[in-house]
Amino acid sequence: MPNIASIIKGHNKRIAATHTSKEKEACNCRKKDTCPLNGNCQASNIIYKAEVKTIDNCKTYIGLTEPPFKLRYGNHKMSLNHEKHQNATELSKHIWQLKQNNQPFSINWSIASRAKAYSNESKRCNLCLTEKLIIINTDKRTLLNKRPELISKCRHENKFYINNSSPTTKHRQENHTQLRSEHRRKAKNPTTDRTQKRIHQQPNTEESLTNPQTERTRKRILRQNNTPTTA
């Protein structure tokens, strides 16, 4: 069983490897002319911009993604095509409002900037900071993002916590927590466990009366004491 030091070392090694590995920014779309990001749908660690154009105006939505953009784009497509997910993002809320008003629209996706996500070495997330900077500098009259996004906590550092490590480590920690809770319960109520053990050890009276071997033993003891037995 590995100790805590080896678990932490292996966890940090896996996370660091994802940042040092070279990612090929390309397009894996079957039809290259339909790529949502102009041939860069596999780009990662980017801040993207979605421009929603209608007949009379143009709205802008700013987002970010650490994994490849195509994974995030799939989530956007789900919220834009299924009404039950219409409140997933500010972009989906605006699109469904246009659909309900029967207004034609088009969406243009582009890369606004690139930055590194949270690193255990730098202790900062340039990806989230860059997104907030772009939101601040965007015209508020055309911006779909809301102000609370500027004070939201970075979610990219969560993967560096031991609690969010591999399933094996989580299972081991849950078992350890259950054992500690059991020991505390026994320490607080030692008499309860002893009473339960006595209850399990006591013979059942009804079973002893119907047991032939127990009945023969009773009759033998009565004969030795010259006591008449009852049928």
TrEMBL record:
Superkingdom of the source species: Eukaryota
Biased composition (Basic and acidic residues): 171-181
Polar residues bias: start-end ranges: 201-214
Positions of the UniProt region annotated as Disordered: 161-231
Protein name: GIY-YIG domain-containing protein
Species this chain originates from: Stichopus japonicus (Sea cucumber)
